[in-house]
Design a protein that fits this description.
The chain has 13 helices and no strands. It has about 290 residues and is an all-alpha fold.
Length: about 290
């Protein structure tokens, strides 16, 4: 029985997939708290699609994926910030950059048919195709982004909840917008190979939304969300081996299951509290003045 449970760990590619998946889950979970607090799910979704254009162009030009997609992602994030500063609504700026980049990717794919298989990996991820280079990239990005979050924790905290209050406290809102957009682009580029364009947003939003149900304290939410992201990634990839399904899909489905269970549990707890308060009011009615 034990041999059966440990069989996946006999393969080096599976161990790499586990390590990268846990790091990606941790990072997505922590970053996701900022995204759901600022209601920025759309920009995360948009950037993931925009970066696809850079990934395709990198393949065609024969340059390193992380370099090409990374530069493209950073430029896309800066262009979105530039358009937003030019009186273009944020959602419109995201839509313009996203659709233009995605359309460019599709146009190149329609010309270079040989990219079809790589395109599927970009859309849905390929955890079991992780290389040692991918492991180092994700590890470095994780350390850098978590360090930035630690250093800029207070400015990002003010920025997340109230931009006007942040400005009053001397926080440059535009600088925080730009910093977080670049951090988000780095997150997406580093995890694109693992989760794919279609699943990245789920890995970012679902653990953070689950943590939001369990706590309303920002720091605690980040810890819970990061832990959920890492644990779900580990067991999601592990289960995918036995269920013979795509690892990225397995991770997202397991994360959704955890969210559903927590949602049901918190709703039951809330109803019990309301019932207890109601019974207490009937047992000990307040004394009213005549």
């Amino acid at each position: 029985m034990l041999d059966l449970l440990l069989r996946p760990f006999e393969y080096e590619f599976f161990i790499r997939a586990m390590g990268v998946g846990v790091l990606a889950g941790l990072l997505c979970g922590v970053m996701g708290v900022y995204i759901i607090t600022r209601h920025m799910s759309y920009i995360a979704h948009g950037l993931s699609h925009a970066i696809l254009g850079g990934a395709v162009l990198s393949y065609v030009l024969g340059i390193n994926f992380y370099f090409g997609a990374g530069v493209w992602g950073f430029v896309a994030a800066l262009v979105i910030q530039f358009l937003t500063g030019k009186r273009v609504y944020a959602d419109a700026a995201i839509g313009i950059v996203t659709t233009a980049s995605f359309a460019l990717g599709v146009a190149i794919i329609s010309t270079y048919r040989s990219f079809t298989r790589s395109f599927e990996a970009a859309l849905f991820g390929n955890v079991l195709g992780i290389t040692p280079t991918d492991v180092w990239i994700v590890a470095i990005v994780t350390v850098v982004l978590l360090s930035l979050i630690f250093v800029f924790y207070r400015p990002l905290l003010f920025w997340s909840f109230d931009r006007e209050v942040a400005q009053v406290h001397g926080v440059s809102v535009f600088s925080m917008d730009t910093l977080f957009a670049l951090m988000l682009a780095a997150l997406i580029v580093s995890t694109l190979q693992i989760l794919g364009v279609t699943l990245i947003i789920s890995a970012i939003v679902i653990p953070a939304s689950t943590a939001r149900l369990l706590s309303d304290r920002f720091g605690v939410m980040m810890i819970i969300s990061g832990a959920i992201g890492a644990v779900v990634a580990f067991f999601g990839i592990y289960l995918s081996y036995y269920l013979d399904i795509a690892s990225g899909a397995s991770v997202v489905l397991l994360s959704t299951l955890v969210f559903t269970i927590v949602l049901a549990w918190t709703n039951i707890q809330r109803r019990h509290r309301k019932r207890f308060v109601s019974m207490d009011d009937h047992t000990h009615p307040s004394v009213k003045a005549p």
